[in-house]
């Protein structure tokens, strides 16, 4: 996400930090490079120009404390302006405080509207609310079926009426929700490959008929300036209340995220960060600015961990690691919890400095899947006591997992090396304790 823009901004700001003294000339030269980087990222020209002007006005003639690097002050100014550009503060969705609260989801075809409906429904269900997903797209083949499959997948009720137009379907869905104590109605509307009067007129009818509390536009962040134009037109016709950036896990250049708020005046409320139904986050301008500048996003990483990791299990695992008593069953459990947090590349990018350090390093998810397949081909006893795995067992495990004996050997070797490393760490930790207080550590490693 924003990799190219981040790299270019980091280079420019690194030059500034390396300058012994900031002058009006080197600031203006640097800002010209920043402007070029923003335009290459497909940021709206007026937005990029205003951004540079604001940074220059604050940076030129800045008074810097002796204890602070002048370049770092400019980095802070750029960060603060990025935060302002992205909206300043997090804007939450309309609260689900009346029955029913109605959200309408709109956007062009292929932007991810139906998946977003499921993601919002899942979040509502986790907050003990009763959501209803409404299939109001009667034009796209299999659109209704897709919504039904997603609704069933997350155990949420869905609504559709055959043979009726979308505005009528939406009105009947709200009436059904009122009678059945539904907390949140999420309406998935039809899209087109481009904006047309027929699409807009239909959406205006739906808005008039159901009086939604939230009109969310899904903007494909991969499309750059096109997403901004689409947002501007939808906002002009419908007065949308919020934008959701989809496909931020892809090769997004950043133009849409950095331009939409300034051009439309409409806040970005959510960010869809992956294909899984759980991959939906509130849009935090300050955290996004930190990611763009390569500063990571530790807060989001901690929040993800808190949502997915079992604290009690984590403490048990820590104890096992210190005593070098962990086994392949523990490894499987940790892998399962890690996968719930999202793509590993994305998680590593949230750690400050890690994105640059791992720039040319790609985590191969298939390698991890192969490791899991090998472990699952072991018996319970073999997972708990890897030391008993001999040649015949290795051949059976390799055959059962569809891998070679060499792959099994490699995994076992890596496991025993890690176990030995933690064993040595444990010895150092408890070195110097009186005899009898040393914990029982497994021998032979």
Task: Describe the fold and architecture.
56% of the residues lie in helices and 9% in strands. The chain is α/β, with parallel strands linked by helices. The protein has 3 domains: 3-85, Four Helix Bundle (Hemerythrin (Met), subunit A); 101-295, Rossmann fold, CATH 3.40.50.300; 307-430, Signal recognition particle, SRP54 subunit, M-domain (434 Repressor (Amino-terminal Domain), Orthogonal Bundle). The protein has an 8-stranded mixed beta sheet, with helices on both faces. Strand 6 (242-246), helix 10 and strand 7 form a beta-alpha-beta unit. The chain starts with a helix and ends in a 15-residue tail after the last helix. The model is unreliable at 429-445 (pLDDT under 50).
Number of domains: 3
CATH class category of the largest domain:
Alpha Beta
Note poorly predicted spans: 429-445
The major sheet is characterized as: 8 strands, mixed
Helix content: 55-70%
Can you identify the CATH superfamily of the largest domain?
P-loop containing nucleotide triphosphate hydrolases
Rg, alpha carbons = 27 Å
How is this structure best summarized?
By secondary structure, this protein is of the alpha/beta class. The chain has helices spanning 3-18, 24-40, 45-59, 70-85, 113-126, 143-153, 166-179, 197-210, 225-238, 255-264, 285-292, 298-308, 311-322, 328-340, 344-349, 354-357, 365-376, 380-384, 391-401, 405-430, and strands spanning 101-106, 131-135, 157-159, 184-188, 214-220, 242-246, 268-272, 280-282. The protein folds into three domains: 3-85, SRP54, nucleotide-binding domain (Four Helix Bundle (Hemerythrin (Met), subunit A), Up-down Bundle); 101-295, Rossmann fold (3-Layer(aba) Sandwich), CATH 3.40.50.300; 307-430, Orthogonal Bundle (434 Repressor (Amino-terminal Domain)).
């Amino acid at each position: 996400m924003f990799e190219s823009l981040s790299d270019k901004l980091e280079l420019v700001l690194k030059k500034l930090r390396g300058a012994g003294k900031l002058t009006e000339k080197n600031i203006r030269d640097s800002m010209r490079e920043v402007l070029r980087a923003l335009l290459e990222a497909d940021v709206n020209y007026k937005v990029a120009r205003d951004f540079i002007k604001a940074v220059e006005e604050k940076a030129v003639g800045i008074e810097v404390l002796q204890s602070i690097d002048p370049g770092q002050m400019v980095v802070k100014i750029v960060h603060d302006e990025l935060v302002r550009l992205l909206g300043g503060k997090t804007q939450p969705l309309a609260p689900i405080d009346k029955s029913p609260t109605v959200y309408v989801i709109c956007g062009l075809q292929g932007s991810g509207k139906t998946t977003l409906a499921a993601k919002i429904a899942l979040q509502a269900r986790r907050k003990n609310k009763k959501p209803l997903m409404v299939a109001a797209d009667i034009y796209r083949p299999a659109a209704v079926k897709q919504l039904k499959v997603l609704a069933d997948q997350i155990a949420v009720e869905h609504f559709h009426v055959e043979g009726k137009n979308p505005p009528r379907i939406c009105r009947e869905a709200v009436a059904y929700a009122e009678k059945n104590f539904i907390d949140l109605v999420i309406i998935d509307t039809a899209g087109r490959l481009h904006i047309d009067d027929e699409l807009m007129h239909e959406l205006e009818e739906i808005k008039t008929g159901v009086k939604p509390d939230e009109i969310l536009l899904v903007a494909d962040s991969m499309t750059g300036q096109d997403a901004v134009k689409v947002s501007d037109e939808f906002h002009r016709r419908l007065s949308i209340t919020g934008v959701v950036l989809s496909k931020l896990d892809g090769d997004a250049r950043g133009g849409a995220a950095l331009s939409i708020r300034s051009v439309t005046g409409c806040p970005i409320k959510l960010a869809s960060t992956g294909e899984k139904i759980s991959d939906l986050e509130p849009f935090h301008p300050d955290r996004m600015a930190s990611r763009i500048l390569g500063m990571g996003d530790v807060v989001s990483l901690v929040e993800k961990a808190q949502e997915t990791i079992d604290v009690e299990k984590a403490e048990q695992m820590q104890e096992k690691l210190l005593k070098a008593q962990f086994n392949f069953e523990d490894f499987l459990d940790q892998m399962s919890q890690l996968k719930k947090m999202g793509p590993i590349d994305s998680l590593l990018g949230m750690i400050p400095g890690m994105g640059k350090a791992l720039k040319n390093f790609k985590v191969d998810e298939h390698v991890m899947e192969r490791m899991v397949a090998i472990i699952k081909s072991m018996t319970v006893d073999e997972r708990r006591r890897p030391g008993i795995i001999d040649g015949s067992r290795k051949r059976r495990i390799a055959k059962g997992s569809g891998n070679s004996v060499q792959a099994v050997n490699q995994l076992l070797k890596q496991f025993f090396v890690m176990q030995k490393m933690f064993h040595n760490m444990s010895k150092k930790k408890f070195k110097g304790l009186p005899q009898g207080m040393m914990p029982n550590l497994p021998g032979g490693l």
